[in-house]
Amino acid sequence: MPAPQELLNQITSLNGKGYKSYKNLQGKSFSFDLFQLTFEHVQGDPFAAPSRLSIKIGLETAGFAKTHYENSLRKLALEDHLLREVSQRVQKCKGKVKGSGRSGEVAVQSPGQKIIRRSGMHIKSDSLTLTLFAGLPGDGRRVLAEECVKLFSEILPPVWEESLLAKSLDMNRVQRALDTLEDYSALSELLDQNHWASFVADGSLLPRASGISDLPLKKDGVLFSAPEEMSAEVHLPHSGKVRGMPIPLGITLIVGGGFHGKSTLLKAIQDAVYPHVAEDGREGIATQPTAVKIRAEDGRSVQPINISGFMDNLPLIASTKNFSTVSASGSTSQAVNILEAIEAGSSLLLMDEDTCATNFMIRDARMQTLITSEPITPLVDRIEELHKDLGVSTLLVMGGSGDYFDSADTVIAMDSFQPKLVTAKAKQIVQENPGSRKNETSGPLPEVPMRTRNLSTLDFSRGKKLCVIQTQKLISLILGRTEIDVRYIEHLVEPGQLELCGWILKQLKGMRDTDANVSNSDAIKNILRTIENGELESVAPFNNGLLALPRLQDVMATLNRLR
């Protein structure tokens, strides 16, 4: 597929000129046979972020049948798969173009193991648009036309030809991508029908390659197998009958010795609020989509909220019914995280004792005898109430205290990465060793309020820029000169989600000017509904090709950490 002569002539005419002369290309479109290339934004120098290009083609022209994108689910699966194909081919472009700074650098939005909506690949009506980044070659501050011609005639065209045309793809893999997402969607629907918190299919590969990798552990990884007495069969549209372990709603404990897979199972369940790609090992796991991982979070700020159900009669504090702080303790932050998850509509709380505050989780009989003026009501005394009165289930990894056996509906023991149902044995232990700790609740858990945040002081400007929204990986979100620490919002899995959170908060600030009384939750729901029914960039000035869709719970969590 030859590059259009018009483009090559324009590039050649710029040779040796100042680098900013590349700006003449901005906004212009060129036809690469079946594809249309548009220079959406051109960088100002070779050391700046690469130029942003859009590549558009009709889906029928690309060789795809209507059945490949006939509904929103299949459209998402196709977008996700094609973006991965492009991402793989982009890796082959490294080092092929000479020049200064970032000359010749080629990139696209990098997808992780989860399938989520991203703006880097977008199907609308009967066409698809890819956002691709390319560093235009320069020699110092001068245009390097020969290398730029090479970039657009030899290097870039094969990227989209080999990844976006059906004839270049393994269509069996494309179909498997569609089938995998449809099976996950069907499994998610079965969770509600059967009152399950999660379902883990037999044969799932839970362990990851390392603590900093989300790729599956291919070597020596133990495949999951449900215990017979806790197994169930589901029928999925493409996989057919699938056996696995359903985890019922209610209070579930995951117990076992150290290094036997407790946290690994919880992490797999936690991540399964999102579908996973085929061959990931976790594609056969689904979890209630509103699930939230709860942990202690020393130092987080807290906006006014009623925490009296968990903490009351604090020294030097008259009331905790409207509590706030700029630096919460571990126990306080964990209590707040639970209340905020409920406020955001979560029906399933996930916890791992390794990241929880011990004094919030449990206070044993001996400590109760020694310290009689404890202001903290531990979770063990509220966990049943959360489920029975508020409909909020809890899935808890617990290896250090048996006091939760009393409340547990289900107890699963992990032994060498395999689950065993030990509920009956745990209940027998309760009968034989009833324990002597006292319940420390002084009354029912107060209703969780739907709060409204005043954002009038939130300034998105910085210097001459009217709006600055930046991310530092998944560590912080920067709005103007304000920085929000988000490192413990564990369900944010890609920077694009965090960036879109920033644009949603900007939209929320604008809504507050016209309707100051609508709750945070309802307002963000409305914004997300608009985004989901349209395009991710609908709340941003343009599509930067790097956005990804967050959940309501994670936008709320980001807002709540705004100081």
Explain what you see.
This protein is α+β, with helices and mostly antiparallel strands. The protein has three domains: 5-169, no CATH class; 248-449, 3-Layer(aba) Sandwich (Rossmann fold), CATH 3.40.50; 469-560. 30% of the residues lie in helices and 20% in strands. The protein is built from 14 helices and 25 strands. The strands form seven sheets. Strands 1, 2, 3, 4, 5 and 6 form a six-stranded antiparallel beta sheet that branches. The chain has a six-stranded mixed beta sheet with strand order 16-19-20-14-21-22, sandwiched between helices. Strands 12-13-9-15 form a four-stranded antiparallel beta sheet, sandwiched between helices. A hairpin with a 2-residue loop joins strand 7 and strand 8. Helix 1 packs antiparallel against helix 4, helix 3 (72-90) crosses helix 5 (171-194) and helix 12 (495-514) crosses helix 14. The radius of gyration is 26 Å and the shape is globular. 44% of the residues are buried. The mean pLDDT is 96.
